[in-house]
Amino acid sequence: MSNSKINVTIWNEFVHEQKEPSVKALYPVGIHGALAKNLAAPDLEIRTATLAEPEHGLTQAVLDNTDVLLWWGHAAHDKVDDAIVQRVQQRVWNGMSIIVLHSGHMSKIFRLLNGTSGKLHWREAGERERLWTIDPAHPIAAGVPEHFELPNEEMYGEPFMIAGDAKVIFISWFEGGEVFRSGFTLQRGYGRLFYFRPGHEAFPTYYDPNVLKVLANAIRWAKPTLSMPYPKTHAPDPLEKLSPKTFEFSKVGIIKS
After folding, report:
1. Cβ atoms within 10 Å of 121's Cβ, excluding its own
2. CA 96 to chain centre
3. C-alpha to C-alpha distance for 153 and 127, rounded to whole angstroms
4. Is there a domain that residue 1 lies in?
5. pTM value?
6. Which domain CATH number covers 212?
7. Is the pLDDT confidence value at 198 over 50?
8. How far apart are CA 205 and CA 210, in angstroms?
9. Is residue 257 part of a domain?
10. Whether 96 contacts 67, CB under 8 Å
11. Residue 191 and residue 184: Cα distance in Å, rounded?
12. Spatial CA neighbour of 204 closest among 32, 48, 25
């Protein structure tokens, strides 16, 4: 973990941008490339990684040197190797934070950390989305308006299958009438998770200044405060002297005669 800079890894499956000309036109260097450029700041050390790289670009060395991991996925959730997912999960437990973007709600890593299916209603019709800041005191909401609008986005609607301990910061209303918990946090082990809904590949969402403000705030909020193995396991040396026991460990609960 860096003392002077926050080490950020932006992971993107990088599929749509190579297969869909309209998406490539919006994000010629990929969503990961656009985010890396638009979030660049003196206190951030940003690298990118993609699905096609060896170990999806998420080697143990990369993750060990990552404070905050951003995750964008949509079309290739099933292509992510389970061993890499478990590696990311362990790093979150140990203190790395993760920011899950848009359709990442169905990624293996989000569903694993969330603990539920992550399912929701959706409709792809380019609808207007109004995001409401319902917890303006949260650091992720710092400097974000009470509400802001995106002219076109994919609709996500309730019910959204998320963990009961989610702390909701943003709620969306869509042109078709649905509402959605679009931004929330979870604590998992020593690591933090933030999910943020906007970011469908067909629209220039990651150029919007309010969306970028939320993500920039989230990265700084998610900077780890603790990094160590989790959970702790065997503790053979007690703090206090133990009294003599009248049972054998192989026969717990049976009193000696």
Report:
1. 12
2. 10
3. 5
4. no
5. 0.92
6. 3.40.50.880
7. yes
8. 10
9. no
10. yes
11. 14
12. 25
